[in-house]
Amino acid sequence: xxxxxxxxLIKKSxxxxxxxxxxxxxxxxxxxxxxxxxxxxxxxxxxxKPTATFMIMGxxxxxxxxxxxxxxxxxxxxxxxxPIRIAEAVxxxxxxxxxxxxxxxxxxxxxxxxxxxxxxxxxxxINKNVVIEVLIPDFKGSQDSLSKVVFSKPDIINHNxxxxxxxxxxxxxxxxxxxxLDLLKKAKEFHSGIITKSGLMVGLGEEPEEVIKTLKDLxxxxxxxxxxxxxxxxxxxxxxVEEYVQLETFEYYRKAxxxxxxxxxxxxxxxxxxxxxEEQSKLFAGKNL
Length: 289
What we know:
Elements: H1 20-28, E1 32-33, H2 34-37, H3 43-48, E2 53-56, E3 60-61, E4 71-72, H4 82-93, E5 97-102, H5 113-126, E6 131-135, H6 143-150, E7 156-158, H7 168-171, H8 177-190, E8 195-202, H9 208-220, E9 225-230, H10 247-260, E10 264-267, H11 277-281
Parallel strand pairs: 2-5, 3-4, 5-6, 6-7, 7-8, 8-9, 9-10
Antiparallel strand pairs: 1-2
């Protein structure tokens, strides 16, 4: 039996025609966004700004995470002109903060790290003042792959833990909790000035004390920023929502994170990993960005 959606999770409707311009540009450039592929509830708000999280290396993932609606299977070969198409789209949209993410590509020797670095470099060539945030997969723990991305000099390295350690086997087969923490810590070792960021979903069956433990683990890996949002099943075949987390609990997590020393923590039902990313990064203006 499906749980009744509480009133704080009901989004206001929006005029779909307002998204036409953004969608047209994306299709003309042959680009994908995680906003569309993951069926993000914030797509109307973000596309109207406009802003988007570009999803590179195709729209087919080699992992089978149960929370995600992105297609799973055998991906197509990389498109070598994708870096310039992304850079041009950033310029045409006039973005000041761009988020670049990808499907997981375990079929590629370096997990797609070289492709990430090429895109960062191309975006930087024709968009001089843009803040670049990359939301990366775990590259199977490869330090060589991670270093390729870090040394292309994005401003923010984002890698999502997604959930607590106990739920990894059930929710994230193929991923490893400790490996993801180590990736964030290693990024700092490669470049101490880079900003690191991670995200969590709640409502998957975790206990509050487990979320607090996860936040402590992230601080132990020198993570600077964290986002916490309500998990919503994107399809009927996805992992079911175990709980609609109360607003007071989100506030509890936010205050706990602030006390732990995160430079920024966003915790609310509709918060997603790249939601309001530009506003978050403004906190660092004049520092590392």
